Prior knowledge:
This protein is α/β, with parallel strands linked by helices. Helices cover 42% and strands 17% of the residues. A 5-stranded parallel sheet has the order 3-2-1-4-5, with helices on both faces.
Amino acid sequence: MTDTTPDREDAPKPETGNAASGAPRTFLVVVDDSDEMRTALRFACLRARSTQGRVVLMRIIEPPDFEHFKFIGDKMKSEAHGDAEKRLQRLAAEVQKTSGQTPMLVVREGRASEQILKTIEENPEISVLVLAAAKGKDAPGPLVSGLAGTFGSRLRVPVMVVPANLTDADFDRLT
């Protein structure tokens, strides 16, 4: 006997993307030099793989504090952009292997919170910002701390804050 019951609107749907557009989920990960960034990246990759989504890797270059000489400031910016692009290319290979999708790479210059907001605004396919909480005395980290203030109130996407102490078993269970 086959079920001929029409699909119900309130029936749970598989988590495959942005509910409004039907597009695959896109997970934004801010690439910085923290240990917890790796946790956020792994979580985003595994979620992207399980939802047929993709990952956006974003490296933000903070403006230099020292700008007395334009030439030196320009040289520092140029080197920072080159380093950022190399770092994103290395991580892109890992993302491809773990998620099965080629990530989108973004390099921005400015204050982190402002650049995250601009990137999300300019890329409507981004559906989730993935951060990881810092371990130890630096907890929870500047971006996670900023969620309670004006930064968090200006976001148009949900934020996943991943505990930095997740084990492999935890990742398997959660993704």
